[in-house]
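Run log, item B.
One chain of 160 residues. Sequence copied directly from the ordering sheet:
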Amino acid sequence: METLTVRRVIAAPITEVFDWCATTTHYTRSPFVLRARLARPGEGAPYGVGAVRLHTWLIGWFRERITAYHPPYDFDYTVERSFPPARHDLGRMTFTEVPGGTRVDWTTTFGVGVPLIGATLTRTVAKPVIAHVFGSVLAAADAALTTPGTPTGAPHDRTP
């Protein structure tokens, strides 16, 4: 298992950054996320505890469940199923007010589910690719929230 954290400061208020990142359909603004949708709303909020999110990335398909939800400070999720198969112990996004905006820390603990070579694939291939995709999603958040005139609420799902 490997733990990865990607950080970025976004020059926007914490509530806006949290809401953007909690809304999974926004992730399709990254060129690496092909499809993202809310399959089941959560308790008390669409992306609250119990919400089920489905993501199709260039690197695979993921079914995630929100396990903790504390707006605007953090939420946790777990990957219940994926293709290719992977083990997943933690997914967490935390949001902290800092001078100039909001710092986002996106952390995941995971492993590639391939016998014998899974640990090597996790470390040498999956970890850098996931870091790049997470960074791309946070860059999309930054662009959406800091570029004047950019709509923040409209998803850009590129699936036919």
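Observations after the first pass:
- The helical segments are 14-22, 118-146.
- Confidence is low (pLDDT under 50) at residues 153-160.
Flagged for discussion on Thursday.
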